[in-house]
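S2.1 Query sequence (Amine oxidase)
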Amino acid sequence: MRPKVIGIYEKDNGILWKHDEYNTKRNDVRRSRELVVTTTTALENYDYGISWIFHQDGTLELQSDLTGIVLPQGTASINQSESQPYGKLVAKNIIGVNHQHFFNFRLDMDVDGQANEVMEMNVKPLPVNENALGNAFVALETPLTTETVAVRDLEMKQSRKWMIMSADKKNALGAATAYMLMPGGNAVFLPTESAEIRSKAAFATYHVWVTNYNASELYAAGNYPNQAKPGKGLPEYISNDESLIGKDIVLWYSTMLGNIQLKINLVG
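Output structure tokens follow.
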């Protein structure tokens, strides 16, 4: 693998927009083209691909690809039915071990300038006295005003999302110009409270962190995560609990993937 190499290419992605108008019998469709900037890194047995995908509708998508070789462990077992609490047999005498992958993405947000703010949105149904048919719901907006307040987790039941918005710029409809963090698949940090890894990878204990921009704060786990004392990285960055109102802010997003080995039926 050659170091410091990226790939840039364009690809078709099916339908960008389509509408079939019933009244006029007119059917319109537009194709979608994507610009992809990608790189791949080999770390021990795994190969990680990171792709930034630029869409024509203004969406910026991040795609993470995991490939390579499964993390193996030797065992005397040759039968899949034998109990293996920490993984599953992938071949005779070889276990694929249960484990997690952690990613954190540092997003230096400058939405229409450096004066930005953060808004959290949660979808909730209206109470019965305001919701006769029971099917009305609203998106509640809550400003995250300081760094410690902005340490947040995903919540599927409320379709939780975060909007990074300009503090002083408006669009044609009078709303603040903004970009929204729209999470995809994710998981939670599985190590117990007493696990040592929590002190080394505290960034993974929450999905979202927001800090004021600081040129020296580049890594979610700190500069030297393996040798660092507990509390380095994001916990240290937010320790002074600075205001996030009208500031040059950085959004940190943690994603997790649990690689839990499944049973495989071997033939032959």
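Confidence is low (pLDDT under 50) at residues 263-268. DSSP finds two helices and 14 strands in the chain.
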